[in-house]
Amino acid sequence: MPWDRNQMAARAAQELEDGMYVNLGIGIPTLVANYVGDKDITLQSENGMLGMGPFPFEGEEDPDLINAGKQTITELRRTAYFDSATSFGMIRGGKIAAAILGAMEVSEDGDLANWMIPGKLVKGMGGAMDLVAGVGRVIVVMDHTNKHGDSKVLKECTLPLTGKGVVDRIITNLGVLDVGQKGLHIVECADGVSREDIIAATEATIV
């Protein structure tokens, strides 16, 4: 069976190592906070928080404590707060080791489109463009196809780009792929998913 959202987030959490400072994008990436476990990971939110905890239990939410996706979260004993300018100074200054982001499309060259669909209302660009330009490693977590069954892993992105050649690893509901020089490499298949299943659902070149 393909992975569900929580299994994708848990797989993304395996990418993290002790001592890393990591930014989580909105959508599925926010769930990664629930799967960090005993690792010494510091999660950063671009709205001005360093040291995010997991999501709160029902009834324990603090409406003033939110992540960049406006979801209520928890704080840790070491949590620090600061303004948005300081937050983006960390990102642009190369202080964040990795970003785990959602995407609408990813290309075989590692191009990322995740901030707008032409003709639809955009609430804000968010921090994605700064993140993909400033962090050490970009991991995308998303469904492999859209609701119509069309591949979101493409030869070339059709939507406006967030960044060119910025994605290092793609984690989808079907498996894990790395961006290489001549196409994508299948690293891991989800339980019950074959290499052939991934190839069939992928428009991009797989080598």
TrEMBL record:
UniProt KW Iron keyword: no
InterPro entries (UniProt xref): 3-oxoacid_CoA-transf_B, CoA_trans_fam_I, NagB/RpiA_transferase-like
Keywords: Transferase
Gene3D superfamilies, per database record: Glutaconate Coenzyme A-transferase (3.40.1080.10)
Pfam families reported for this sequence: CoA_trans
Record bears the keyword Manganese: no
GO terms assigned for molecular function: CoA-transferase activity
Similarity comment: Belongs to the 3-oxoacid CoA-transferase subunit B family.
UniProt name for this protein: 3-oxoacid CoA-transferase subunit B
